[in-house]
Specification:
Blueprint lengths: L1 E2 L2 E2 L3 H14 L1 E10 L2 E2 L2 H4 L3 E5 L2 E5 L9 E8 L4 E10 L2 E14 L2 E6 L24 E7 L1
Antiparallel strand pairs: 1-2, 3-4, 3-5, 3-11, 5-6, 6-7, 7-8, 8-9, 9-10, 10-11
Length: 147
C-alpha cells in the first residue's frame, strides 16, 4: 500500500505511524532550546510551548526571538527516527521552501528534536546524527515535556 509517498509493507507499519503521530499531539512545554550550541535563556523560553496538531508544529510564547510564533509543517519516519520541518526562506524577495532535516526521540513524557540548520554545499541543511547543537553543526535542539 502507498500512503503519503511511503510504501507500507503491512498494516503494522501504518499502525505504528498513526500511533507515533498520536504521540506528538498536544501541548509541550519547552524545557531547553539551543541554536548553534547557544542555549536560549530561561526567560526567553519561560512561556514557550509547542502545540502539535495533525502534521503541524506550532511554536508559541517565545520571547524576543524571530520564531516567537510560527506554524511549521512536519513529517517523520518511525523506522528511521527522522523528523523534517518545512519552513520558508526569502531569497532576493522570493519565498522558497526549505526542509530542515532532523531526528527525534520520545523518552517517557519528554520529546527530543534536533534539526539541521547549516547548509551543505548542495544548498540543503544537513541532518544531525546526534542530539547535540554546536557552533560547528548549526543545529537547533529542542527538549520538550508533555503538559
Amino acid at each position: 500500500m502507498l500512503l503519503g509517498g511511503i510504501w507500507l509493507s503491512s498494516a503494522t507499519a501504518g499502525d505504528s505511524t498513526r500511533d507515533e503521530l498520536k504521540s506528538f499531539q498536544g501541548t509541550w512545554k519547552i524545557i531547553r532550546m539551543e541554536q548553534s550550541g547557544k542555549a536560549m535563556t530561561k526567560e526567553a523560553i519561560a512561556k514557550g510551548h509547542i502545540v502539535f496538531e495533525g502534521n503541524e508544529m506550532n511554536m508559541k510564547g517565545l520571547k524576543d526571538l524571530a520564531c516567537a510564533t510560527a506554524t511549521l509543517p512536519f513529517a517523520f519516519d518511525v523506522a528511521k527516527g527522522t523528523f523534517d520541518l518545512t519552513t520558508v526562506t526569502f531569497n532576493d524577495g522570493k519565498a522558497e521552501k526549505l526542509i530542515l532535516p532532523g531526528i527525534y526521540a520520545f523518552e517517557q513524557n519528554k520529546l527530543r528534536i534536533c534539526v539541521g540548520n547549516e547548509l551543505s554545499d548542495k544548498g540543503k541543511a544537513r541532518r544531525p546524527k546526534e542530539f547535540r547543537s554546536s557552533k560547528e553543526n548549526g543545529a537547533m535542539l529542542l527538549i520538550l515535556e508533555k503538559n
